[in-house]
Write a structure and sequence with these properties.
The complex is a heterodimer of chains A (121) and B (147). With 121 residues, chain A is mainly α. Chain A is built from seven helices and no strands. Chain A is globular. Chain B is built from six helices and two strands. A two-stranded antiparallel sheet of chain B has the order 1-2. Classes of the chains: A mainly alpha (121), B mainly alpha (147).
């Protein structure tokens, strides 16, 4: 098994893990990694987990998820959010960020993602 | 005066000449000493010493003798070929029996076994059962391996 496949499986395993401590590992190790591919896989894993604490990381934090400085990572995260079947929690969070977040850029991004979700429904 | 008689006088053609030219095969109508050759006749200077039957018998005998030689060559060649094939087959079999054939199946099986165990070890379902701390170590190792 090559390393990329192994890395993908490890991150996916953390996404599915029963222990909520996995979210903290993904945020600490994955979202702060200088490697774009690792950050992309981590953001995707957090979206797939679809819990409030995981979605909060990719939607409401500067430089992570939809607010990542890498355009490819940000667009990939937006695509994963749009592909969610159960997107109720994501919508709720996006509304909350759009209304209450202190950072204007983060608010703008949340508004854009929410608009895209409305179009894709 | 008739037209025919006029043409005969001018061109010198006569009914007798026409009859003569129509009969002989010589296209030029050549006269040899005043005589027109009526047919192609060639006489051989060599006398035929043997009759037709005699000549045929000779031919048959020649063919029979010749065929007998060819058949004997074929049978000899066939026998030698068979013996050669037999000898080579025996040599091949002796050589094959003494040769060890190894396809490296053991190495192949070992490689497959290693790969399968690696796949099962690092499968998502298998990794999901590990503690989060172990997964964090695995994650750090995998990130470091990317360089």
């Amino acid at each position: 098994m090559n390393n990329d496949k192994r890395l993908n499986n490890i991150i996916e395993a953390l996404s599915r893990h029963e222990d909520d401590a996995a979210v903290e590992v993904l945020e600490r190790v994955g979202t702060n990694c200088p490697d774009d591919e690792v950050r992309r896989l981590t953001a995707r894993a957090l979206v797939h987990r679809n819990t409030p604490d995981a979605l909060h990381i990719v939607v409401a934090q500067r430089g992570k998820g939809v607010n990542d400085l890498s355009t490819s990572v940000a667009m990939s995260t937006i695509n994963e959010i749009l592909a969610l079947k159960d997107n109720a929690e994501a919508l709720r969070l996006l509304n909350e960020v759009e209304e209450n977040h202190e950072d204007e850029n983060v608010r703008e991004t949340a508004r854009s993602v929410r608009a895209l979700m409305a179009f894709s429904i | 005066m008739e037209i025919r008689s006029i043409s005969q006088k001018i061109f010198g053609t006569t009914p007798a000449n026409h009859e003569n030219t129509a009969n002989h095969t010589n296209p030029f109508g050549v006269n040899f000493k005043g005589n027109i050759i009526m047919a192609d006749v060639f006489s051989s200077t060599v006398e035929k010493s043997q009759s037709f039957t005699g000549r045929m018998n000779k031919l048959v005998d020649a063919v029979r003798v010749g065929s007998m030689n060819a058949f004997s060559d074929v049978s000899t060649r066939f026998n030698s070929a068979v013996s050669r094939v037999r000898t080579r087959a025996v040599e091949f079999w002796d050589r094959a029996r003494s040769t060890e054939i190894n396809f490296g199946a053991e190495n192949l099986i070992n490689n497959l076994r290693e790969r399968f165990s690696e796949m099962s070890t690092h499968s998502v379902s298998r990794l999901s059962t590990l503690p989060v701390s172990d997964l964090e170590s695995e994650l750090n190792l995998a990130i470091a391996a990317r360089g």
